[in-house]
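Known limitations

Files may contain more than one protein. Parsers should not assume a single record per file. Below, a two-record file is shown to illustrate correct handling: read the sequence, read the token line, then continue until end of file.
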Amino acid sequence: MDVKAIIFDLDNTLLDRTTTFRNFVHRFNQQFFSASSENVHQLNTDLIVKLDDDGYKQKPQLFAELIETLPWPQGDLLPNVDMLMDFYANEYVNEATLMSHAEEVLSFCKNRYKLGLITNGMDSIQYGKIQRLNIKHYFDSIVVSEGAGVKKPDRRIFDIALRELELSAEECIYVGDHPKNDMEGAALAGLQTIWLEVNQPWRDDLNVVPLKKLRQLRELIYFLA
């Protein structure tokens, strides 16, 4: 393989979204349910994590559902969606946590390839997480769906990254966790793919064969070495 660039997904690939989101939920309980019992906090956590759907539910919808379903303390002012979105924008970004060995992997790859990042989400949230994780300097191209006007799995978002990297699809490997958004999307854009198995199970209806399946991000080093 004449590989000249590695392009990464962000959430659940370089960013440990499970830890990040659970830490955010802990802050959420502290902020809005400070007088509630630990049992209530745990029930809230379980419900929020379930409704969040590993980050694939739109946040305004998630917070609207939480306003309707959580046992908000009586007598307190019930927050609205805008208030919860503002809280999320600040606190979720502050809790951003790198995936185990992500820095080691990025350093290894940076010495050998151009690096790109393609992520779905709001510019403020995604760039905020990138800054918090202190990884921006690794990348020659960063494409966020809101600013790009198109999101994975649409091949056009991959084409934007390829233009910025000044490379062909055949010269790039894409690493991500989502079978459809990452693996199928990148493959249909002509990129080679590596699947990091995290929370999303493989889908039998996908006609995609990744070069490699990783259980841990660090395995990418051994594959590329």
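...continuing to the second record:
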Amino acid sequence: MRAPHPDGADAEPWPARAEELLTEHAQRYGALVRAWRAAYDMQQMAESEASTEPPEPVPGLPDAVADQEAARHRLWQDTGKQRAELAAGHTADVHQRAVHAARAYAVATLAGFHAVVSGADPVAVMQGPDDTDAWDEPPLTLPAATGIHAIDDEIKRLHAKAVGRPVKRRGPAPTQKRVRRSYWWEEKKPARPADPGVTLADLAKCLHGHMAGGELVRRLDPGRGAAG
């Protein structure tokens, strides 16, 4: 059984505070993505309602009643337009917040990963989601290599996507998948765009996964990770 580090939890090879910081980042980004999806879906639904064609007039219906139906439809369109405008503003705002959160998550995991590889204190180089400044975001620097090729290659690939410089593919191009034929009776719904900051988040989740629970520490230095 491992004994606690004599200098406290934050002196452990993988400090508890380091895990807490990364979990806070992951939760913040996830919450913002869910909020963005909700706002986006509301915007699409409201825009559809705002552009709905009025129903065909019913033969024999008194003009006064037909006017009532038309008034209700106009109200439905007007409220749909208002909700669409409100949701559009929310969608844009939350999108920006989510991208910032994804970048902050990536910055924290990159810093922590580099610290673990170099034997430094990860807590000393990581910030929580509430401590980052959107106007002073550090660059997304590729961390030091671990020497474990599977990990290093995965991180290099995800980092390249996150910074917009995809790694060139080696070997033959992948075979394109056949697109399933669609039929007239199948309703086609527009696909929601990719989640904001998804490439940054993919990098952060990968790094976080390797560090979680001190896994990377144990792989790089089994004696240090199991000390106690």
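Parsers that stop after the first record will miss the second one. For reference, the second record is described as follows. The chain has six helices and no strands.
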